């Protein structure tokens, strides 16, 4: 049995949907109905406070392998679930050992992990280092590897980058309104 093929959202369609959803959520909050959009709250925490919410995809270096790991049923250790899924598709790039065969030290000093971390410092990545959004973003090396074949990716073409930039632009515009700023500030301080 073949699975159905569905047309995926492109980034602009996704951002339009996101904006519509955020407008609705903000309207609910203005009516006194508390409702938080958590991805926006994560970004707002980074934008408006000195706190880092620890969201793996928005960390530099990437949080994959240091803020979280995935241990598969067979004992293989991966930098993330996406890295584990790549292995299931035949690419072990983000496997950094096995709990039955490697020591803790071997796992967390493996070339696979250390190379990923080294290449995910946004301040040293071309296209990130001079980006105005860099303080609020992350590198997401597994996504970029899966899409472009290398951890750095091609930032001008990256849907990850386009989505983050689009959401941040929306939030910056929304913060210009006093009532909306009060709502969004509450979100940032509760994350």
- Quaternary state of this entry equals single chain
Largest sheet: 3 strands, antiparallel
Based on CA inertia axes, which overall geometry fits?
A: elongated
Please indicate the percent range of residues in DSSP E strands (runs of 2 or more).
under 5%
- What structural class should be given to the helix and strand makeup? mainly alpha
Helix content: 40-55%
Please list the strands of the largest sheet in the order they lie side by side: 1-2-3
Beta strand count: 3
Structure explained in plain terms:
There is one protein chain. The protein has helices at 11-30, 38-48, 81-88, 104-108, 111-118, 141-148, 159-174, 178-190, and strands at residues 70-71, 76-78, 95-98. The chain is mostly helical and 191 residues long. Strands 1-2-3 form a three-stranded antiparallel beta sheet. A hairpin with a 4-residue loop joins strand 1 and strand 2. Helix 2 (38-48) packs across helix 8. The mean pLDDT is 92.
Describe the secondary structure blueprint for this structure.
Blueprint: H1 11-30, H2 38-48, E1 70-71, E2 76-78, H3 81-88, E3 95-98, H4 104-108, H5 111-118, H6 141-148, H7 159-174, H8 178-190
Antiparallel strand pairs: 1-2, 2-3
Helix pairs in contact: 1-7, 2-8
Task: List the keywords.
about 190 residues; mainly alpha; 3-stranded antiparallel sheet; 8 helices; 3 strands; about 5% strand
């Amino acid at each position: 049995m073949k699975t159905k093929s569905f047309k995926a959202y492109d980034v602009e369609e996704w951002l339009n949907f996101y904006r519509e959803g955020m407008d609705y959520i903000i309207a609910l909050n203005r009516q006194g109905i508390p409702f938080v959009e958590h991805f926006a709250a994560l970004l707002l925490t980074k934008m408006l406070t000195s706190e880092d919410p620890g969201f793996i995809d928005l960390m530099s270096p990437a949080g994959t392998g240091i803020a979280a790991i995935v241990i598969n049923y067979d004992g293989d250790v991966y930098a993330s679930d996406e890295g584990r899924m790549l292995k299931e598709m035949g690419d072990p790039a983000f496997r950094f050992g096995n709990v039955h065969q490697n020591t803790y030290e071997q796992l967390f000093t493996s070339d696979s992990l250390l190379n990923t971390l080294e290449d995910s410092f946004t301040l040293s990545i071309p296209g990130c280092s001079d980006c105005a959004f860099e303080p609020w973003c992350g590198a997401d090396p597994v996504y970029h590897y899966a899409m472009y074949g290398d951890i750095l990716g091609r930032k001008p073409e990256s849907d990850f980058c386009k989505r983050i930039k689009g959401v941040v632009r929306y939030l910056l515009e929304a913060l210009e309104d006093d009532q909306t700023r009060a709502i969004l500030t509450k979100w940032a301080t509760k994350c």
